[in-house]
Amino acid sequence: MKQVLLVDASPLFNEFIRTKLGDDTLKVETAVGKKDAFQKMVIGLPDLVIVDIEKDLSDIQDFLDRKLQEPNAIKIPMILSGPQIPHNQVVTLMKYGVVKYFAKPVKFDVFFEAVSKILQTVLTFDSTPSILQCHVNGNIIFVDLAQGLNRDKITIFKYKLAEILDKNNMHEPKIVLMMSDMDLSFMDGANLELLFDTILDEKRIRRNNIKVLTMNQFTKDLIAGHPIYHGIEAVSSLHEVTDSLVGKDNEDDLSDIVSEKILSPDYEAGNGTIETQFRQDNSGAAHDDSETVMRVAVVDDDPVTRDLLKGTFSHANVDVDLYEGGKVFLDGLQTKTYDAIILDVFIPDMNGLEILKSLQAQPSFTTPILIYSQTNSREIVIQTLSLGAKGYLTKPQKPQVIVAKTMEILNS
């Protein structure tokens, strides 16, 4: 059985990770404090270490340094979650065995995808399209739901809800489930019950403080016909919500809050540590640097070399862009940045020396370049190094050698 060591996770983060990974028959051990974590890591030799950072990287620097000096521990991959940090600082973590860094709040579909790759195991995740967003105003939590009901999102919502209540010190919270656009049927009954049960499991929330904004008859019937949900009110308009929660005198004010703030994308319930929005909710969004440790460009006209390097780096959770020509690569640099570049010398449309000269003419360009080419000509080697290349490898090499050399020039 694969083992995961979870270090210094917040109670909510800890409980959700243990629940999710435990459901997929992975053994999860927890550690509190870096001394306890190091001992458990060295003795148990887990397949993965997940560390939750509360403030900044200095909190775990001693732990990382000790891991680096331990021959068996250094081989153990790590995932870190913590505050937003610069991408170049994330890259420096690779020498400690860190393969992913997630800035909080964590998008858990991406998180578990990384865990699945590292452990080479299949983790089940509900792929039902669903939007679930939380917003706070005063003592009211607005929960905006759309598209569908995703069981994993509902499970995460359980922990997000508790986090919101704790962070805002809410003792008598009121919940508005905004589901007016959702067309549900009896096939959604189990997931709808899971949603209501998740809210009712939170003891600080009273049934008569839960309002469901819906036009869906099935949802109304389920609430009315289920004795456990007695007290929850299904309403058809925002005016009914304002009447029942804050009184008619404040009706216009709360309606304005809902229409002008709650439905706008920049009015969230604080970042916290848990994100109820998944990557697929923003499939057209730009790549998030906080979710990737490293990005590499491979410039080589040989398709076998390109595919081999892409597979090797991807296995280490490194993003790889492939270029078969020099001109298209230079065009790509107009919109993309890389942590390292692997470059062949002999490329038909524009050779590696010309590419190096072009990059050297750009004072702001500092990305390290590793030359990987068939020639071992002393003159070519000296030329490439004099033009700024940080290393040179002669083809063919084992993919692991190329990755190790890339790490070497990065760490230097």
Short description:
The chain has 412 residues and is α/β, with parallel strands linked by helices.
Termini separation: 37 Å
Uncertain residue ranges: 259-268, 283-290
Mean pLDDT: 83
| Class inferred from helices and paired strands | alpha/beta
Q: Characterize the largest beta sheet: strand count, sense, and whether it forms a barrel.
A: 5 strands, parallel
Overall strand count = 17
How much of the residues is beta strand, in percent?
15-25%
Q: How much helical structure, as a percent, in the residues?
A: 25-40%
Over all CA atoms, what is the radius of gyration? 26 Å
What spatial form do the alpha-carbon principal axes imply?
Answer: elongated
Q: With helices defined by DSSP (H or I, 4 residues minimum), what is the helix count?
A: 15
- Strand arrangement across the biggest beta sheet: 2-1-3-4-5
